[in-house]
Amino acid sequence: MVSKLSKKKIFEDLEVARDVLQQEAAGILKLAEVLDHNFIKALDIMSSTNGRVIISGMGKSGHIANKMAATLASTGTPAQYVNAAEASHGDMGMVTKHDVLIAISNSGETLELTNLVAYAKINTIPLISITGCANSTLDKAGDVSLVLPKLQEACSLNLAPTTSTTAMLALGDALAVSLLERKGFSSENFNALHPGGQLGRRFIKVSDIMHDGHSIPLVDSKTPMSETLIIMTNKSFGCVGIIDHRERLIGIITDGDLRRHIDKDLLDQMASDVMTNEPKTVEPDELAVTALSLMNKGKQPVTSLFVVQSEKPIGILHIHDLLRAGIV
């Protein structure tokens, strides 16, 4: 739908939007400049806990806390969001002495956090404060306090939390990714926590979807083509792998190879006479997306890849397997 606003008004709206984005980006850059040893102390506390990272806040800070907990949990740090107001009505039981508490408040004076902070102090639960006000109650209460620099809200009234919440969100991401790096969290770990959706599909390994055992179309190099064609047809991959006396993969016969040899007494030849040497292969621990890239690489894309380990075929992967897994 075409806007009925005047060109001048459209220009003004775009200028406002760009100004918001520029102010928030500047706020994140300013935050990056003031990170200090307190950030490292916070990482130390979070990485050494035997329990979870409990994150709490109210209002917009509560939304940031919720997202922060989700990001931490998805990157290998067990975390949970607890609503600060609900904590005073029974949800305090979600916090144990083995946990770490992160309390978020831009003003540092959020009343609803009082009981939760007190509970942490009484039970010697490490408290990490994230606030926009140095020397506030929350700042002083924290065992470690991460104080945002003075930031101008992107709201023209300087009232609605905008730049400050964006900075808090970015700080949460910085904590999560730094912990991820510390722990050596791998793509396999990430896949285990994201089995559904596009992220999970991106980290599926070849070994997860390949065909193995008796389903692999293989023949010895000295096998007559009359027998090779039967195996190739029965296995239904449109190809057959050729192995030597040490069971190493040395070649492949595809439909294209058959067409090229159709007028050369095909059935009287051996598999080694017809095969293409040095076929494309992939290892079982490679990502399925890597296999797809190999299939599409070069002038002649292929629809099947043999999966090899120590030069020996242990599986086969077809383009249809990638389609079923949602890789393509």
CATH level-four homologous superfamily name of the largest domain: Glucose-6-phosphate isomerase like protein, domain 1
Could you say which overall geometry the principal axes of the C-alpha atoms support?
Answer: elongated
Order of helices and strands: HHEHEHEHEHEHHHHEHEEHHEEHEEH
Radius of gyration: 30 Å
CATH topology assignment of the largest domain: Rossmann fold
How many domains would you count in the coordinates? 2
How many helices? The count is 15
Mean pLDDT over the residues: 90
Distance between the termini: 33 Å
Percentage of residues in DSSP E strands = 15-25%
Write a structural description.
The longest helix is centred in the N-terminal third of the chain and has 28 residues, at 7-34. The protein has 2 domains: 7-185, Glucose-6-phosphate isomerase like protein, domain 1 (Rossmann fold); 206-324, CBS-domain (Roll). The two termini are 33 Å apart. The chain has helices at residues 7-34, 37-48, 59-74, 84-87, 114-122, 137-141, 163-183, 187-193, 197-202, 206-209, 225-235, 255-260, 271-274, 288-296, 319-324; strands at residues 53-57, 79-81, 100-105, 127-131, 144-147, 218-220, 239-243, 249-254, 276-277, 281-282, 304-309, 312-318. The protein is elongated. It contains 15 helices and 12 strands. The strands form 3 sheets. It has a 5-stranded parallel beta sheet with strand order 2-1-3-4-5, sandwiched between helices. Strands 6-7-8-9 form a 4-stranded mixed beta sheet. It has 328 residues and is α/β, with parallel strands linked by helices. α1 packs across α7.
